[in-house]
Design brief:
Zn(2+) binds at residues 97, 114, 171. This protein has 318 residues and is mainly beta. The protein has helices at residues 20-25, 60-66, 100-106, 136-144, 148-151, 209-215; strands at 5-8, 10-18, 34-40, 49-50, 81-88, 94-96, 114-121, 126-131, 152-156, 162-165, 171-173, 177-184, 190-193, 228-232, 235-242, 246-260, 266-279, 282-286, 291-294, 300-314. It has six helices and 20 strands.
């Protein structure tokens, strides 16, 4: 094969969504309340479809199941990564995710550790990241008494910020923020607080208070990671995260830059610009909004153009 796999993916309507994913990337939205684009996904709730080559028409979960050789013979039961683009036109609910042990035991799927690259943020936009409770009992009391302003830790954000959000971290994306999220392949979310909002049918959205208390890390641990920057010929590579779950990089390319695989496969999302991806089998145009899988049989590639890319590879659990 030896060619990159371009992916067509699933858009998700959300109560807090908007139209930014069309405005920025030209994606064809089903409504004006689209909040998520599951850009690179093998999750059954929204698998990506391959657009080119001999596997055209297959979904990524089917490819993982039938052609594990394209992923270095990986042994995991499910494809471990999921890349999303989120448009928070309104505040997301305050939520928390379980770790693998709790998620597998209670939900039958992986837990969710994730990270956020802030693609854009309006002036004054903020996220919820962590809490101020010192004990589980204090956490439960503050939740029961609705002391959200005292409990929740809020942080103002700007374009280019990066946050590592391990399982057990109370968090929420605020209005006016667009992010690229790299996460474990899981759709388990425990909603702790939703500003008493009602859905389209006039009902309050379901909360998961006990599960949230069960899985929240107390006291909060700031998991911010120091980024590393390496300048090579025509590319600046920023390493944001090296974890058991995923490794996340930013490639700022100006000109022709050469790359060598550092993992069995690499996920690539083009956030800005355009250019050409070259591999042994040929040249492939890259445009803003492209999402690509570079499988095991692509050991070397080059990208020529002016682009900003977020790339990720699977983590290695020791």
């Amino acid at each position: 094969m030896n060619e990159p796999l371009f992916l067509e993916s699933v858009l998700k309507e959300r109560i807090w969504g908007g139209t930014t994913l069309h405005d920025v990337f030209g994606y064809d939205l089903p409504s004006d309340k689209v909040g998520e684009y599951w850009a690179i996904s093998a999750h059954p709730n929204g698998p990506s479809t391959i657009k080119n080559g001999q596997y055209k028409g297959m979904t990524l979960d089917q490819l993982w199941e039938k052609h594990r050789e394209l992923f270095g013979g990986a042994k995991e039961e499910v494809f471990p990564l999921l890349t999303k683009v989120l448009d928070a036109n309104d505040d997301l609910s305050v939520q928390v995710h379980p770790d693998d042990t709790y998620g597998l035991a209670h939900e039958g799927e992986l837990g969710k550790t994730e990270c956020w690259y802030i693609m854009d943020a309006k002036e004054g936009a903020e996220i919820v990241y962590g809490h101020h409770a010192k004990t589980k009992k204090e956490l439960e009391t503050m939740i029961r008494e609705g002391k959200w302003d005292e409990l929740l830790q809020r942080i103002k954000v700007k374009k280019g910020d990066f946050f590592f959000v391990p399982s057990g971290t109370i968090h929420a994306i605020g209005a006016g923020i667009m992010i690229l999220e790299t996460q474990q392949s899981s759709d388990t979310t425990y909603r702790l607080y939703d500003y008493n909002r009602k859905d389209d049918t006039g009902n309050l959205r379901e909360l998961h208070i006990q599960q949230s208390v069960d899985v929240t890390t107390v006291p909060h641990v700031d998991a911010t990671k120091e980024k590393e920057i390496e300048t090579l010929e025509n590319v600046e590579i920023t390493t944001y995260a090296k974890t058991d779950f995923f490794n996340v990089f930013q490639w700022d390319i100006k000109g022709k830059a050469a790359f060598k695989a550092t993992a069995p496969y690499t996920l690539v999302s083009v956030l800005e610009g355009e250019g050409t991806l070259s591999v042994e089998s040929g040249n492939f145009p890259l445009i803003k909004g492209s999402n690509i899988l570079l499988a095991t049989d692509i050991n070397n590639w080059s990208i020529d153009g002016s682009l900003q890319i977020i790339a990720s590879t699977p983590g290695i659990k020791i």
